[in-house]
Amino acid sequence: MTYVVTDNCIACKYTDCVEVCPVDCFYEGENMLVIHPDECIDCGVCEPECPADAIRPDTEPEMEKWVEFNRKYSEAWPVIITKKDQLPEAEERDGEEGKLEKYFSEEPGEGG
């Protein structure tokens, strides 16, 4: 099992999860985070830390696409290990439908 970041992170990018990750498996895009599925040790400490409820175990239905999504971008984006401020529109975008199609950016974040 692994944990993955889903589309509710897009346009929010809370980073509470990166502070508690014991293996530094989060990677930062311009407007979301992902988890490298091969580096995640399945400890689950990140899941309750996410204010947007964007982190899910891959054992839930329809998570296969998110495993591959997280793998793809974790191999292209820089690792992030320190908490940063969420995006300015995070509260208003939290829970919004269709964020992948509306807001997702393939551009890397700054990492750090």
From TrEMBL:
- One Gene Ontology MF term: 4 iron, 4 sulfur cluster binding
Q: Which residues form the 4Fe-4S ferredoxin-type domain?
A: 1-30, 31-60
Q: Does the keyword NADP apply?
A: no
Known PROSITE patterns for this protein? 4FE4S_FER_1, 4FE4S_FER_2
Q: Where are the transmembrane segments?
A: none
Which InterPro entries would you find in this protein's record?
4Fe4S_Fe-S-bd (IPR017896), 4Fe4S_Fe_S_CS (IPR017900), 7Fe_ferredoxin (IPR000813), Fd_C (IPR022569), FdxA (IPR054829), RnfB_subfamily (IPR050294)
- What are the protein's UniProt keywords? 3Fe-4S, 4Fe-4S, Electron transport, Iron, Iron-sulfur, Metal-binding, Repeat, Transport
Protein's UniProt keywords contain Membrane: no
Q: Where is the composition biased (Basic and acidic residues)?
A: 96-105
In this chain, the stretch annotated as Disordered covers: 85-112
Report any Pfam family annotated for this entry: DUF3470
PANTHER family, sorted: FERREDOXIN (PTHR42859:SF2), OXIDOREDUCTASE (PTHR42859)
Task: Name any cofactors this protein relies on.
Answer: [4Fe-4S] cluster; [3Fe-4S] cluster
Query: What is the protein's known function?
Result: Ferredoxins are iron-sulfur proteins that transfer electrons in a wide variety of metabolic reactions.
Against SUPFAM superfamilies, the record matches this protein to: 4Fe-4S ferredoxins
Name it. Ferredoxin
Q: What is the lineage of its organism?
A: Bacteria, Pseudomonadati, Pseudomonadota, Alphaproteobacteria, Rhodobacterales
